[in-house]
Amino acid sequence: MQGGNALLGIRLNTFRARLLLWILLSTLALLIVLTGIFYQYTAQQIDMRVGEAAQRNVSQAMDNFSLLARGYDSLTKSIMSNAEIQRLLSREEPTVMDEFNKQLLMMGALGTIYYSYNDVKSIHIISPVGNVYSYESTTHKINHGFMKSEWMKELRESDGSLVWGGMLGEDSLTIREEQEEPVFTFGRVMTNLYTTRPLGFLVIEADPRTFLSSMNNLMIKPESRSYVYSSSGSLLVTSHPEDTSAYPEKSVLDQYPFLEDAADASDNERLIVTAMDPKLGWKLLSVTPKPVARVEQAAANRYFVIVSVAIVLAAIVIAFLLSRSVSKPIKSIVQEMRRVERGDLSPQLHTRASYDEINYMNEHFNRMVSEINGLVERNKIATASEKNAQIHALQSQVNPHFLYNTLEMIYWLLDEQENEKLANLVNSLSRMFRYSSDWRSSTAMLKEELDQIHYYMTIIGARSDGRIHVQHRVDEELMETLLPKMTLQPLIENAVIHGLSIKSAEGTITITAKGEGQMVYIFIHDDGVGIPPKKLHELQLSLKRAERLEWSQLKEEERQSLSVEPAIYGESQGSGAGFLNVHRRLVLEYGAGYGLRIDSEENIGTTVTVMVPSIMPRA
User: Fold this and answer.
1) Which residues contact 434 (CB under 8 A, 6 or more apart)?
2) Are 73 and 207 part of one and the same domain?
3) Which segments constitute the HAMP domain (predicted)?
4) Are 272 and 264 in contact (CB under 8 A)?
């Protein structure tokens, strides 16, 4: 998980990722600002347009109500002026039978008027003594509490003009079932046309769907509510009779202007439109929570979302292309720098049609690599000259050809005497000496190093009476790996002298190798006595210290190793210095990260790891 986070951090820290992120953030910030401005402007414009439409709808609804009210007024007047009804109401019947006949005659007169109006549900006339004469499509029970209601009280106190009761609900004259629709109630006082003597009260119940249909036209959104009030302030009709909690208080009406023409009385939270019929005194109030135009706003929002998504996608594409055009040449420079870090000084950046700053970096990077390459070549020449001088000095002291010839002569003499064991020893010594003294090439293949180990172990096997063995398991594909000459023998010699020779039982040295990417690991493991932890730590510090040495300090390190390493390994001298020299040669040849690594456990064994680059001979 930590590795994944680190990788993610590296990706986010790249120049390209940062540039892409900044472009996207800038585009999104600009888009958000434009979105807010566009949304605010759109909402205001839609509110204004919808407000104007709402005013027109309110004016139209108010006109419909006025026409409907005038029709109802005409209905009541036609009933009150009906001669038959006037005659029957003016006459008092002495007997029950006469009253029954009066009931029948009254129903006939009312029925004739009833069928002239489609939206009338029932017509009732209440006599001064409490008799009710009715005609309705479906017979309903009479609500006896109706005579004591507030609306009936208002009707009694009226001056003979039409009194609007509206949708009285449970307080209506007739008792209706729950599943039945409510009725719209209105009435007036019945008087004798000649004597003006009160004859009773006319109560008409009409179908409210005509009112509700006009009020539904005022619905802008489901949350919209419309109310119609009488001149006295009582609620006549509402668009949602079941929602009694939303009815405005009677005192709230005084806050709004009610004019003959529809007026906008909106506040910050609601769209409010009012109107009034000056003849009836009716007041119409329409209330809609903002934003008022859900459908229009939703359509605008969908369009804006589509445009926003398109802008964001276009911004991503533009940002990607722009960041790529800027980061690609920089990425090329970074890749070449990494190759230089790995020791490859051959790359050269090609100047392309890019930014002037990038071209300047390419040019100076090429110049820097060229100068480094020159310094490395000069250093190699100086190092080779120093090695050649050392080799010539050795050759001037001992003539190797004389030794080769002498050893081979001894080998043939022993072979003629059939002394095979001693002949093999002499042959191994001869081949070892020939290999170690031939410095025409400073590198050798791993196979050649293993052959040299074979000759060396032939001699060691004779000295140890066959108690020390060596075996290797190396894949054929790694056998041609190049490494500095005489790299493995000093390490095998250390394992024999310091790990196995002081062990009484038999010992084995195992050589294995594996390749990982551009690196080859060679493992030399012995099952000897191992190294004590304290001394192992000192040896590991010596390896690290050797990596930091300069050429001028190499001689001093070699001198100090003669006194340091015997204290680590034991009493023997010489091979300890060879161990550090091998490590130093690998570091000087290939750089930091290559060389030797040592691990050991006391009384279990020691493992030396040789780390070299995967280099094969040229075909």
Assistant:
1) 400, 404
2) yes
3) 324-377
4) yes
> If pLDDT is split at 50, 70 and 90, which confidence band does 316 have?
confident
**Is residue 574 scored above 60 in pLDDT?**
no
* Cβ 224 vs Cβ 230: under 8 Å: no
Q: What is the mean pLDDT of residues 220-242?
A: 82
CA–CA distance, 34 with 490 (Å, rounded to integer): 76
Q: Does residue 480 sit within a domain? A: yes
Q: 560 vs 256, which has greater pLDDT?
A: 256
AA letter at 562: L
Distance between CA 262 and CA 491 in Å, rounded?
106
Q: Would you say residue 176 lies in a domain?
A: yes
Least confident range from 109-123, 396-410, 439-453, 562-576: namely 562-576
Find, among 290, 243, 245, 301, the residue nearest to 54 by Cα. 290
Residue 460 and residue 323 share a domain: no
- Find tokens 């790529």 and name the residue: 324
At CB < 8 A and 24+ separation, what contacts does 138-143 make? 140/174, 140/175, 140/176, 141/174, 141/175, 142/173, 142/174, 142/175, 143/171, 143/172, 143/173, 143/174, 143/175
Residue 331 vs residue 575, higher pLDDT: 331
Decide: 238 and 224 in contact? Cβ < 8 Å.
no
Give CA 301 to chain center in angstroms.
23
When pLDDT is averaged across residues 395-419 and rounded to a whole number, the result is 55
Q: What is the longest distance spanned by two Cα atoms in the chain?
A: 174
The enclosing H or E element of 487 equals: none
Strand partners, 204: 123, 186
What residues pair up with 242 in beta bridges, in sequence order?
Answer: none
Residue 20 pLDDT greater than 60, yes or no: yes
| Domain that residue 278 falls in | 12-340
* Crossing angle of helices 294-341 and 15-80, rounded to 10°: 170
Q: What is the DSSP letter of 144?
A: G
Same-domain status, 31 and 148? yes
| The pairing of beta strand 482-484 with beta strand 605-613 | unpaired
pLDDT tens digits, one per residue of 339-373: 777 667 666 666 565 666 677 777 777 778 777 77
